[in-house]
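Incident log, support desk, overnight shift.

02:14 A customer reports that sequence design results differ from what the structure should imply. Their input is reproduced verbatim below. On-call engineer (initials T.W.) acknowledged and began investigating.
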């Protein structure tokens, strides 16, 4: 385990790379999307053109995880040292209200916030593809979208992951005639390896490539979306789509020794959580401790960070997020003072939140091109296949991101996360997200990483960063067993192999509840550039075998 040092939040520009990589590296959750990105790099595109290609391809081949009906975060770092964070998070409809998912008796109606058109926020991903291409890419948008269009027209191969996630949502999908036609042909899920065609989404992508933002958010297509959503019980208006714009924000930056880390600002909760986790743990010499002691302190830091997530974090355009306080080493020292090395702190003892399940969804990809440009992108429709509604003629699933708001203070969402007033529903507001695309810039190594997994995204990225900082290869990073704590429920979730029986017993003796997971979680995608010898690595999480792919421009595959 690495030894952590004190951290400071930085405001100065990052130092540009001293040399270029020997080639490009891409890791994504679907090998067809990785190939799309490589195709665009070979056509003369940069990492940002490839990001558009991969994002659009994933919208076709991974409808359970993301798509044009959802949103995402694009963390981009150019080889001149500049960086930006493109917030394409979905927005609440203008007709939304704080208590729209409460029953007459005041209890939360989880079905309405998860299933059906009322659960859909206004999509942001199409707008992001336009901005990334036009502002940061080299190629025309239509060129970068070409591989995704081909996948939709000619058909993509149905994967094990498509099928597994379908099993969880098939009944709800069957209620949407357009979705049933594509994803349940003949009334049953496709066989793994079947070729699935989606000409409707191909037409939407072609229009986006030709006419940009206006093709999706204005005119006839926007009205088609609104009419379809309202017919299915939703509350969208044409004004919702007309008003949607992505927001470019400054990435959060912090330092560890001679490393600089760029990560996601609010409305992501992940970046500030990473800063706080490292700051809290900086007060301990973890390298001298046994494994159980290290995990205990990490869990206690996670517990406090997730508590702060519930209390303070929300859309920065609507609430005053105290970033300076939450990122301060002095605030971290105060949190650390409440941690005992020999005893777990019950979450009920931490003040500030009224306390009254997890699936694999979302998707991430990472890119380094041969010029040293970097992209870390996480995108989502929230739960698998979103809200299970598809508007006729569109070919994509609508999201159920409204469930990421605090439907009622203290009531957990689909991922067991609780929230308070900062993340309450308001018209036009972006819901808080756990998506945490992250880039590490070191003297010797550069890396991009991220993962899906709902509430477990933040801890996955944290553990991935600690592993990279300790010198692990990309493959070692994505394969390491994981553990997680999120304040509530008050338990340590562990993957098979994450902790020995003796280590589990030591944590239980300290007062922790240890909950072994029935199956692993996450789908991390990592690329690493060794600045000393120029070599690049790409690794796709092996938890979904034969689905994702890490690839370098030399043709090496790491799975």
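02:41 Re-run completed on a clean worker. Output:
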């Amino acid at each position: 385990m690495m030894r952590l040092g004190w951290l400071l939040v930085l405001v100065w520009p990052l130092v540009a790379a001293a040399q270029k990589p020997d080639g490009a590296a891409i890791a994504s959750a679907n090998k067809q999307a990785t190939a799309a990105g490589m195709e665009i790099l070979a056509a003369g595109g940069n990492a940002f053109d490839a990001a558009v290609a991969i994002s659009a391809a994933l919208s076709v081949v991974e409808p359970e995880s993301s798509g044009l009906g959802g949103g995402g975060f694009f963390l981009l770092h150019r080889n001149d040292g500049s960086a930006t964070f493109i917030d394409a998070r979905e927005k609440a409809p203008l007709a939304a209200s704080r208590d729209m998912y409460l029953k007459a008796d005041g209890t939360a109606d989880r079905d309405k916030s998860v299933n059906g058109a009322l659960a859909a926020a206004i999509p942001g991903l199409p707008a992001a593809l336009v901005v990334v291409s036009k502002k940061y890419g080299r190629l025309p948008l239509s060129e970068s979208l070409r591989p995704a269009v081909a996948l939709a027209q000619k058909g993509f191969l149905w994967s094990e992951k498509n099928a597994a996630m379908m099993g969880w949502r098939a009944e709800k999908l069957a209620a949407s005639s357009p979705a049933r036609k594509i994803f349940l042909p003949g009334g049953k899920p496709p066989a793994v390896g079947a070729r699935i065609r989606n000409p409707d989404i191909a037409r939407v992508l072609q229009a986006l490539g030709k006419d940009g933002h206006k093709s999706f958010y204005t005119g006839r297509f926007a009205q088609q979306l609104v009419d379809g959503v309202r017919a299915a019980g939703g509350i969208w208006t044409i004004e919702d789509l007309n008003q949607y714009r992505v927001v470019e924000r400054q990435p959060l930056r912090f330092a560890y020794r001679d490393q600089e880390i760029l990560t996601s600002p609010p409305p992501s909760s992940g970046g500030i959580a990473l800063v706080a986790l490292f700051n809290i743990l900086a007060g301990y010499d973890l390298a001298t401790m046994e494994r159980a002691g290290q995990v205990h302190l990490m869990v206690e830091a996670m517990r406090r960070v997730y508590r702060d997530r519930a209390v303070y974090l929300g859309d920065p355009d609507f609430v005053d997020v105290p970033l300076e306080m939450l990122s301060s080493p002095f605030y971290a020292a105060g949190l650390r003072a409440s941690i005992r090395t020999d005893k777990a702190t019950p979450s009920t003892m931490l003040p500030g939140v009224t306390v009254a399940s997890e699936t694999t969804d979302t998707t991430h990809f990472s890119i380094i091109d041969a010029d040293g440009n970097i992209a870390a992108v996480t995108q989502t429709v929230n739960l698998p296949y979103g809200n299970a509604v598809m508007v006729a003629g569109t070919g994509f699933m609508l999201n159920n991101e409204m469930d990421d708001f605090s439907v009622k203070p203290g009531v957990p969402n689909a991922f067991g996360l609780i929230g308070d007033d900062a993340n309450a529903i308001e018209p036009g507001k972006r819901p808080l997200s756990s998506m945490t695309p992250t880039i590490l810039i070191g003297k010797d190594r550069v890396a991009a990483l991220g993962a899906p997994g709902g509430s477990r995204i933040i801890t996955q990225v944290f553990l991935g960063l600690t592993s990279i900082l300790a010198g692990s290869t990309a493959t070692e990073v994505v394969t390491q067993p994981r553990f997680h704590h999120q304040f509530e429920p008050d338990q340590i979730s562990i993957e098979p192999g994450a902790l020995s029986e003796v280590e589990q017993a030591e944590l239980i003796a300290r007062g922790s509840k240890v909950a072994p997971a029935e199956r692993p979680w996450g789908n991390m995608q990592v690329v690493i550039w060794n600045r000393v010898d120029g070599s690049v690595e790409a690794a796709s999480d092996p938890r979904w075998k034969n689905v994702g792919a890490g690839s370098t421009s030399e043709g090496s595959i790491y799975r």
